[in-house]
Specification:
Length: about 200
């Protein structure tokens, strides 16, 4: 039975209280690596949002088909195949439209395929038994939450480059501390909207 959750609540909860990065810590590799540059962060955030929105909807339909055929045990493999296909199409589009963005994203664009946030959203959609529209809204909101988080970290890291950070904390140390503070800030929204 699909839980009754308004699209509005689901959308904002997936951005803030259930942020895929800062509440579940999924997709951290590309998040930390790409967030050094604002333009690359924006491009990757857009790409992740598109991939999450499309793959969550397609994976919902695939799950329904596999369930009807009694092949549910294949869902993880098929989810990954769908994700890989969508990422490959997006990679070709970005390469054609913006060569500079394609080059700045480098290896992280094809690595969206194995980004655990992408698979995690599809698995959460399955576990929570969302309807098609709930799945699409959840995927889109999760993508926007990921995009918001990487843009915020990128802006903070740009400011930290000019800040008097102690030598022992420069680089990864201050980045991990910043992510921890960001996670606490996003958790502060948890009393407002919540998705279970």
């Amino acid at each position: 039975m699909t839980p009754v959750i308004s699209p509005f609540s689901l959308f904002f909860a997936s951005i803030f209280t259930g942020n895929i990065l800062l509440a579940n810590f999924l997709g951290m590799c590309s998040f930390i690596s790409i967030s050094k540059d604002l333009r690359s962060s924006n491009g990757l955030g857009f790409a992740v949002t598109v991939v999450l929105t499309v793959t969550t909807g397609v994976n919902w339909a695939v799950l329904q088909l596999l369930t009807a055929l009694g092949l549910v045990y294949l869902r993880y493999i098929v989810f990954i195949i769908v994700i890989a296909a969508v990422v490959q199409m997006l990679e070709m589009i970005i390469d054609r439209v913006s060569q500079s963005l394609y080059m700045s994203l480098g290896i992280f664009l094809p690595l969206i395929t194995v980004n655990c946030a992408i698979l995690g959203v599809s698995l959460f959609m399955e576990i929570r038994d969302y309807s098609f529209w709930q799945s699409v809204v959840f995927g889109f909101g999760s993508g926007l939450g990921w995009w918001l988080s990487i843009m915020a970290l990128s802006a903070i890291r740009k400011k930290l480059d000019k800040a008097p950070v102690p030598a022992g904390l420069k680089g990864p140390g201050i980045t991990v501390i910043t992510i921890g503070f960001m996670a606490m800030a996003f958790i502060g929204f948890s009393g407002m909207l919540q998705v279970q």
